[in-house]
Amino acid sequence: MRFLHTADWHIGKKLHAYSLQAEQEAAFQQILKLAQQYQVDAVVVAGDIYDRALPNEQAVAAVNRMLQTINLKAKLPLLVISGNHDSAIRLDTGRPWFKATQFYLHTKLAQAFTPIEIKKTQFFLLPYFEPFAAREYFADPKIHTIAQAMPKIVQTMQAQFAPDKQQVLVAHFFAAGSQKSDSETALTVGGLDAVPLTALQKFDYVALGHLHNQTALHEPRIKYSGSPLKFSVSEANQQKGVWLVDTDPFQTQFLPLTPKRDLQELTASFAELTTPAFYNKQDRDAYLAINLTDTKVIPNVMQTLRQIYPHIISLTRKNGRDVAPTQVKKIRRLAPEALLSDFFKETTGQALTTQQEKWATSALKAARKEDK
Amino acid sequence: MRFLHTADWHIGKKLHAYSLQAEQEAAFQQILKLAQQYQVDAVVVAGDIYDRALPNEQAVAAVNRMLQTINLKAKLPLLVISGNHDSAIRLDTGRPWFKATQFYLHTKLAQAFTPIEIKKTQFFLLPYFEPFAAREYFADPKIHTIAQAMPKIVQTMQAQFAPDKQQVLVAHFFAAGSQKSDSETALTVGGLDAVPLTALQKFDYVALGHLHNQTALHEPRIKYSGSPLKFSVSEANQQKGVWLVDTDPFQTQFLPLTPKRDLQELTASFAELTTPAFYNKQDRDAYLAINLTDTKVIPNVMQTLRQIYPHIISLTRKNGRDVAPTQVKKIRRLAPEALLSDFFKETTGQALTTQQEKWATSALKAARKEDK
Asked: Which of A91, A242, A266, B325 has the smallest number of CB atoms closer than 10 Å to its CB?
């Protein structure tokens, strides 16, 4: 039995103001191609298909198209669980019909205990669940965290284990010892919900979703696939991809994905950044987090850089910014209105319009009123 | 071929502040029972399954349950189109899988031209569409209204008509000559979009959705089913139900539904309304639009009536309310703050709290500012 393990698609997610739709579609096409090229027996998506419980219509259309493409066009069995970003209820739409074409979608805890068998592998699809759901399911008032629920969950699954078969758990939670990055939303109770690895070692493989870095956990048989795309600056140096997993004999291989538009960090001086010899060597079209080494004030900095690098997502100063002591004194004496107007001029190279001045004045007035 | 024709479920709709979930569930159970009792070959739902494009999770769960119950549990073929209240894109989720169990769901204009055949009847399922969709589909820049699109649509359908079969159109629009009531949202272009009946007379039967009154149109073979529930006071005297339709030999019968909680109008004096001999004869639990015959000021009127009639949805004065000429003069002299405070006291029997007074003052201040 051979399958692809992916997760955390977060369809509908934006990177600052940018829609990631084209990049997500391109990553999906690569996943599909890999699945076909490696002749997998199934594709596993371990939760967070959507970025939010209430996805917009465009995201709904994209997910519908993707799931139909894998399962109905490419005729690949599809194993999906809901993650903490998905609305289990919305995602559940159509579920009972899907299994006729080997599309298994689990959105409720109770469904996790009926294994899906493909070739000689039993898949236990455990959707993201809140502790109260486990408390209710096991009628055990002592369950207050996901971690507390897991031993009981695994025990219940073990009762279904066929000795001559392999067992794979598909789940969406924070496994103890994993490293978080910036783009993941914390699961409810901070820290308390880390699932100990001991509970997971009963399986031949655990296909996890939730963390966006495939190296978040260093275990041969318990893995995060990570997201197919970089979703934050902290992921700039991560290699994104999917796991190719064989259950018998056991083997895993990480298959990289190539982003349609990359996300990169760029540390340099303003002079370098604006020199053709420098910028022609850069991936100028990438989503860029620029870290300026300059300390001087640079007029129109963003405007100038955007002409060369159209997708800047952040601009920071590696070494801070020079402010002369006399200037500090001057700044301290300025009224907030004047400070704001100076700052705007310095940053954008343009003075506030009369209308903008009015807005600023009324906002500051309101702020002062709230302070009282 | 025999089918039930229903429409305009508007799952998720509220009646003033009241959730209609229990009433909608009860109506659904009756529809299901009728379908089974009359051994229909299919159930037709002519649009507006949901009340809004973005239904809440409770509504999604309810609709999913209903559609599964009809098609998967009761194993009845199900023919559904999207209405102007539905999000075609959201409703479309799962569609390609549904037809395996004879659940045909059409959400796009292009799908209308592939008839669904059940026994010897061809069903053309035409979802609600915007004029631009028809303009694009027919590549005809002259189409600006639904009415203008219909002759072309019907003509395209006619090319599929099998002479030895019956043809049924399922659609969701305003048919010319129909009577509107209060609870229907107007379709885009006021008036211009009324579909002439001539376009519809090619069919053995036209199962319409959109208008909530089953008597909105008086045609033997072109009918609105109306909504299963009363959604506004203007529908208080309507008999709600579904159509039972036989295509060969052609026959229709209106099957009434009994509301779990009715919506009624009640015209009486305050004295009558509060007399046991009177109110014990009323359906006190109904959603009530009370029309008071009194003209005098009645202290605590709403509070008192609610103790007897817990689900009042409106309170009006049939004959207006007495105001003595001296009082009019007095009122004219009062500042808005004092007027509001007097009105509140008169209506609720309680004085404004200090906090409420503050709110009122600041709201009136803001209103005065906007007036300038």
From this structure: B325
Measured CA to CA, the distance from residue B6 to residue B19 in angstroms comes to 21
Q: Which helix (H) or strand (E) holds A46?
A: strand A42-46
Q: How far apart are CA A40 and CA A245, in angstroms?
A: 9
Q: How far apart are CA A140 and CA B128, in angstroms?
A: 49
Query: Do B304 and B213 fall into the same domain?
Result: no
The phi and psi torsions of B216 (rounded to 5 degrees) equal -60, -25
Question: Least CB-CB distance to B60: which of A89, A95, A98?
Answer: A89
The percent of residues in chain A predicted with pLDDT above 70, rounded, is 95
Chain B residue with CA closest to A53: the answer is B57
Say what the ipTM of the complex is. Answer: 0.82
Q: How many beta-carbon pairs below 8 A join chains A and B?
A: 50
- The token duo for A356 is 């903008």
pLDDT at B22: 96
Contact of A97 with chain B, judged by CB distance below 8 Å, is answered with yes
Dihedral angle sign, alpha carbons of residues B357, B359, B360, B365:
positive
Nearest CA-CA distance, residue B93 and chain A, Å: 6
**E strands, B18-92, in order:** 18-19, 42-46, 78-81
Q: Domain check: are B195 and B123 in the same one?
A: yes
Q: Does A90 touch chain B (CB under 8 A)?
A: yes
Pair A297, A205 in one domain: no
Q: How far apart are CA B21 and CA B61, in angstroms?
A: 11
Taking CA–CA distances from A71, the nearest residue in chain B reads B97
Q: Any CB–CB contact under 8 A between B72 and chain A?
A: yes
Gyration radius from chain A CA atoms: 25
| B87 at A interface, C-beta within 8 A | yes
Pair (A165, A294) in one structural domain: no
* Surface of A (313-352) touching B: CB under 8 A: none
Number of domains in chain A: 2
The verdict on A119 and A29 lying in the same domain is: yes
DSSP-derived 3-state class of residue A111: helix
> B2-6 and B78-81: which strand pairing?
unpaired
Res. A233: pLDDT tops 60: yes
Give the pair of three-digit tokens for residue A25: 């579609």
State how far the alpha carbon of A339 is from the alpha carbons of A360, A361, B282, in Å.
Answer: 11, 12, 70
Using pLDDT thresholds of 50, 70 and 90, give the confidence band for residue A324: low
CB-based contact B187:B146 (threshold 8 Å): yes
- Which residue of chain A has the CA closest to B71? A97
- Which pLDDT tens digits describe chain B residue by residue (372 residues)? 999 999 999 999 999 889 999 999 999 999 999 999 999 999 999 999 999 999 999 999 999 999 999 999 999 999 999 999 999 999 999 999 999 999 999 999 999 999 999 999 999 999 999 999 999 999 999 999 999 999 999 999 999 999 999 999 999 999 987 777 666 665 543 445 789 999 899 999 999 999 999 999 999 999 999 999 999 999 999 999 999 999 999 999 999 999 999 999 999 999 999 999 999 999 999 999 999 999 888 888 999 999 999 999 999 988 877 766 667 777 777 788 888 888 888 777 788 898 998 998 888 888 888 766
What mean pLDDT is reported for chain A?
A: 92
Position B313 in a domain: yes
Q: Contact A96/B68, CB-based, under 8 Å?
A: yes
Cβ separation of B60 and A93 shorter than 8 Å?
A: yes
Residues B41 and B91 in one domain: yes
**Which B residues in the span 37-66 are in contact with A, Cβ-Cβ below 8 Å?**
54, 57, 60-61, 64
Kindly determine whether residue B98 and residue A97, on different chains, have CB atoms separated by under 8 Å.
Answer: yes
Q: How far apart are CA B252 and CA A168, in angstroms?
A: 56
If asked whether residues A188 and A312 sit together in one domain, one would say: no
- The range of the structural domain enclosing residue B210 comes to 2-256
**How close, in Å, is residue A107 to chain B by CA atoms?**
12
Whether residues A191 and A313 share a domain: the answer is no
